[in-house]
Amino acid sequence: MKPIQVGLLGIGTVGSGVFNVLQRNQEEIRRRAGRGIEIACVADLDTARARSIVGERTRVVADAREVIANPDIDVVVELIGGCGIARELVLEAIAAGKHVVTANKALLAVHGTEIFRAATERGVMVAYEAAVAGGIPIIKALREGLTANRIQWVAGIINGTTNFILSEMRDKGLDFDVVLKEAQALGYAEADPTFDIEGVDAAHKATIISAIAFGIPVQFDKAYVEGITRLAAADIRYAEQLGYRIKLLGITRRTPRGVELRVHPSLVPARRLIANVEGAMNAVLVQGDAVGATLYYGKGAGAEPTASAVIADLVDLTRLHGADAAHRVPPLGFQCASLSEAGGELPVLPMSEVVTSYYLRIRVADEAGVLARITGILAEAGISIDAVLQREAEEVGGEGSTQTDLIILTHQTREGDMDAALAQIQGLPTVLAPITRIRKEELS
Amino acid sequence: MKPIQVGLLGIGTVGSGVFNVLQRNQEEIRRRAGRGIEIACVADLDTARARSIVGERTRVVADAREVIANPDIDVVVELIGGCGIARELVLEAIAAGKHVVTANKALLAVHGTEIFRAATERGVMVAYEAAVAGGIPIIKALREGLTANRIQWVAGIINGTTNFILSEMRDKGLDFDVVLKEAQALGYAEADPTFDIEGVDAAHKATIISAIAFGIPVQFDKAYVEGITRLAAADIRYAEQLGYRIKLLGITRRTPRGVELRVHPSLVPARRLIANVEGAMNAVLVQGDAVGATLYYGKGAGAEPTASAVIADLVDLTRLHGADAAHRVPPLGFQCASLSEAGGELPVLPMSEVVTSYYLRIRVADEAGVLARITGILAEAGISIDAVLQREAEEVGGEGSTQTDLIILTHQTREGDMDAALAQIQGLPTVLAPITRIRKEELS
């Protein structure tokens, strides 16, 4: 049988990875897919660079629409990124009856509903394993491997840049700014690292995970997003002393009132496997009611790990090309008809409704009664305390005025209640600096 | 559409898990599968117990063949176990045109080739996610998630009983026999634990993994199998001092001369994630050429984790029921035609051809020159030494005769060369007890 014909839109790092792995492993892949997979055409504005990657035997064009219009192309792989031209091209490819593979998490987190609906109506598949956690087949695990389960929650280290930075901060006791520069020098962080360090990239991925886990529409606009830029080396050290590591987690949880969807730094017990995921690695922990906890670990980025996911999608599409829609896995793993319905029943909760526990670091004047006042406010708000760590006082400024860090771990409480209590505590004259509040997840 | 009709052969622990999870999550499962999944009939010799599990609305019979002969049944789930009647029934179900789901690793490791061939000829599917690592979707990851990769090796903790025993031996410093009794009391080990502690169960699973990873036939008879019964608490302690944990690993590796397929206790660097998998948990580490290392972790046994895998298979079968064979994933992930061919090119290597590194514990008389003689023999065999740990001598028996444990870590060498060197060392008059030899895997 003729190889399945693939058109590549954009051939940067990931695109060249896809091209190289398909070439190198073509025999193995053909034995698996039952049919060859061939990149027939590549579109990239930089045609010279594209040509240098693919050689003479593959067609190179500057205009992506030429690929989409090509009647020989079965599958379009979108590797342009972003929500602008990529969205247009994906929708055009679908309209032209092409299956689509994309690694574009931003596009799916924001425009997924529109794209999946268009694909379903046109009878084509949209596959996106590479959009979440790079080479780890977590989309497949959630959509197909854990279908028996009512998923209870998913928590993942799904951004390698921030995990690298946090690992380095902990290993070397350095502050965020210093490590960010090192990460940029090493290529682990981009020149403009905003999307990574502010948690946006992780939130795109968490949004997609949330939709698959619970059968709800993608709702990036409802995600709570907090990055790692305000983390101090001191918090990582204190957390360590209390038996925790700090990780940037993407968390989504089913509760009776709705779904939590949030990205923020989290204290995780140091003995958990996921707390020991270091450097730029990714890991996703899934809690299902039948299977219990399962964890998936691997490289979340890079040319070939991402290519691994793109090509796995191509093999799936190759097998299912021409099959009736009933034989395919629907885009989010749930039948589309049942999706919108459930979205109504399972709203994404505002952050004030989220229930979790907390690490608080409060800079206080070293005076009698400070701890009593603070714990009194927490008690009044119904927030119970798990542990207190009081540091030795340091002399600051002279004249015998001393300050200290008060570290408090709380039990579970509503974020809204915590906000109110913190506002009160912040107002105390003995509280000398903005309070640091980091959420704590036991993941048990 | 009418729910897919499932017949259950055997309703013990896993069978009742399947029944209960299907009931509890039926709505969620229907939304995923696009169609209900219904256990229409259960066969079990103990019909009274079966009836007490499934209630009045499900048909219960004593004769499995009645289920197979039932024209309304689409899928037969075999949960009887073993290679006797289970093999007959699976082949009969296939002959009757039923899809088969099985959790029976022994059956597939020994008779997989016959069963997969029969299924392919008859045009039905055989699914077996539950046969390896319980609820962890590792079969799906290997067959579908990592299809882009040339798999280089897989190493797994794929037997919960032995991992529980090893974890306890390490935690509490106890010897094997003591912990085995505790594990039996807690239900982590069976009354007759032979299959687990001798490594046979892990070897069944490693055999299946090997076939999927490399596209070779299942060849249990070629597997090297060594259990944990001879491990001493001292070895676990020494390994710890050298920065290693001891795990029972199922390992399969592609080499230029063939495939390694082996189960044995292994020293693993303590900093590796897989070394920190404790208790009855399972984990499988897969090294692919594109994706690098990925790890899959979760519960490897138990009613509902295993049911999770069985039901995931049922959802897959429900989606693909009626689809052309080209749209399905072949039993071992590779097209059947390409399987036998490759089996010839990639023979399973005898253990003497395996290349790995070693931990040696040698009980020696505390005399001058002992270390020199032993290291001399290793050097002559071309085996280089990575580290030596010499314990303080203990007085044994009186009259000033002292003994000591000499611990040697070697670099990589052929097992055959190590066998020959060890035979020589064992023959030295200063070597006072059988040498302990444990393989060491860096997994990097």
Automatic annotation (TrEMBL), chains A, B:
Record: residues binding NADPH: 105
Matching Gene3D superfamilies: 3.30.70.260, Dihydrodipicolinate Reductase, domain 2, NAD(P)-binding Rossmann-like Domain
GO BP term (any one): methionine biosynthetic process
Pathway: Amino-acid biosynthesis; L-methionine biosynthesis via de novo pathway; L-homoserine from L-aspartate: step 3/3; Amino-acid biosynthesis; L-threonine biosynthesis; L-threonine from L-aspartate: step 3/5
Residues covered by the ACT domain: 359-440
Signal peptide positions (record): none
Domain of life from the UniProt record: Bacteria
This enzyme's EC code(s): 1.1.1.3
Residues noted as binding NADP(+) in the record, renumbered to the chain: 9-16
Residues where L-homoserine binds: 190
Family statement drawn from the similarity comment of this UniProt entry: Belongs to the homoserine dehydrogenase family.
Name assigned to this protein: Homoserine dehydrogenase
Species in which this protein is naturally found: Melaminivora alkalimesophila
